[in-house]
């Protein structure tokens, strides 16, 4: 049978995409983590690849099967993710940061298992580099797409991140309620750019990823228009 030609608007386009959580070690057996499943990022990576892009996925630890993308690099900590991205960022056309990167890490992980000797324990955390902001600040940055997971004032915080980090687009979602987001199969997004916005209603993450990939392709192709 003959099928109609599939639209591949991102043919020849190299995409770098972060996904999943990071783990910040406390000692050899423990880490600080977060509730990101990686599902939205993996789905978006596959959706972009399906539009013809060559996608390199930089993934924190997830329970997901390897997605159909050109290359997958597995990392654990925010610093490892930062390194893996920065050595590849100059070579990509589009960078998408879906990862839930730990904002802070224990300053010096204990070399041996921490024993419960004391009645209380204080952790000293230091800030991790902002991977998305670092890519957007390159002298010739790729088309840069961020995510913003917020519990409140979703759109205002997201627009602030778009401008402050100098992004081309940001996809904002509400987390912590029962409306989708982390640990859920469905999600709703409000996507913002400097002079526009689009709302995606609550739907399963695979469908949402396809719709978002289409929008990224459109905005990427129109990037030089004033
Ligand atoms: N991000 C990143 N590197 C970090 C922290 C965040 O690349 N060290 C990216 C995320 O992948 C996401 C975007 O920045 O695309 C926004 O993440 P978010 O946690 O919502 O914002 P932050 O800038 O970390 O600010 P805050 O957590 O205070 O809201
Ligand atoms: Ca953060």
From TrEMBL:
GO terms for cellular component: phosphopantothenoylcysteine decarboxylase complex. Its EC number is 4.1.1.36, 6.3.2.5. Binds 1 FMN per subunit. Catalyzes two sequential steps in the biosynthesis of coenzyme A. In the first step cysteine is conjugated to 4'-phosphopantothenate to form 4-phosphopantothenoylcysteine. In the second step the latter compound is decarboxylated to form 4'-phosphopantotheine. Its cofactor is Mg(2+); FMN. Keywords: Decarboxylase, Flavoprotein, FMN, Ligase, Lyase, Magnesium, Metal-binding, Multifunctional enzyme. This is Coenzyme A biosynthesis bifunctional protein CoaBC. Pathway: Cofactor biosynthesis; coenzyme A biosynthesis; CoA from (R)-pantothenate: step 3/5; Cofactor biosynthesis; coenzyme A biosynthesis; CoA from (R)-pantothenate: step 2/5. One of its GO terms (molecular function) is phosphopantothenate--cysteine ligase activity. GO terms for biological process: coenzyme A biosynthetic process; pantothenate catabolic process. It comes from the Bacteria. CTP binds at residues 103, 113, 129-132, 147, 161, 165. The chain holds residues 176 to 401 of 403 of the full protein. The gene is coaBC. Residues 15-226 are annotated as: Phosphopantothenate--cysteine ligase. In the N-terminal section; belongs to the HFCD (homo-oligomeric flavin containing Cys decarboxylase) superfamily. In the C-terminal section; belongs to the PPC synthetase family. Residues 10-218 form the DNA/pantothenate metabolism flavoprotein C-terminal domain.
